[in-house]
Amino acid sequence: MGEHVAYLRVSTTDQNTERQLSDTGFKFTKIFEDKCSGATASRPALEALIEYVREGDTVHVHSIDRLARNLNDLLQLLEQLTGNGVSVTFHKEKLTFNGENNPFQTLQLQVIGAVAQFERSMIKERQREGIAKAKEAGKYKGRKRSIKRDQVIAMKAEGLGPTAIANELGVSRMSIHRILNSG
């Protein structure tokens, strides 16, 4: 019998993974934890998990959206894991995939993965709508502008003073002075 391995993921570093898989009753041999978006391709703990697991092991994941954010990634990850004889259990959905050629299991996976992908796109759409409304109300300013040091130095070389550079770039004079005095 193989090992029970956990994969935990939260989207930001200030979130914690304590609620994920805490009530499963399994004693995990190893726990892999990522603190990054599921949409990103580079997830160090997931990559380490894939290297670590062997035939007969079971990977436990809280829910499908913790493993992948879109159907293609989900199918690819499951194919890679189950193709190596590793089972994957999603506790929230109460589903286990073990690579058996089971049409119903494949259908379930595709439907659930498509729903998760749709849900994620709806969240992003609501976020865009919320930002647009906040902008209309003057409550959303967006991210702070970044100032390119090379651009400031080039403008100074053209004969512009700190006030003119600041006005041109839409930033404070102090920001321009900081850049000019740092180099």
For the CA atoms, what is the radius of gyration?
A: 24 Å
CATH class of the largest domain: Alpha Beta
Q: Output the number of helix runs.
A: 7
Strands, total number: 5
The rough form would be described as elongated
Distance between the first and last residues' Cα: 62 Å
CATH architecture of the largest domain: 3-Layer(aba) Sandwich
Characterize the quaternary organization of these chains: single chain
Biggest β-sheet: strands ordered side by side in the sheet: 2-1-3-4-5
CATH topology of the largest domain: Rossmann fold
- Low-confidence segments: none
Largest sheet: 5 strands, mixed
Residues in helix, %: 40-55%
The H/E string reads: EEHEHHEEHHHH
How many separate structural domains? 2
Secondary-structure-based class equals alpha/beta
Classified in CATH, the superfamily of the largest domain is: Resolvase, N-terminal catalytic domain
- Provide the residue-averaged pLDDT: 85
Strand content: 5-15%
Protein name: DNA invertase Pin-like site-specific DNA recombinase
GO biological process, one term: DNA integration
Pfam families: HTH_7, Resolvase
GO molecular function: DNA binding; DNA strand exchange activity
Explain the overall architecture.
This protein is α/β, with parallel strands linked by helices. The protein has 2 domains: 4-122, 3-Layer(aba) Sandwich (Rossmann fold), CATH 3.40.50; 149-182. Helices cover 48% and strands 13% of the residues. It has 7 helices and 5 strands. It has helices at 44-52, 64-67, 71-83, 103-136, 149-157, 162-169, 173-182; strands spanning 4-10, 30-35, 58-61, 87-90, 95-97. It has a 5-stranded mixed sheet. It is elongated, with a radius of gyration of 24 Å. The termini are far apart.
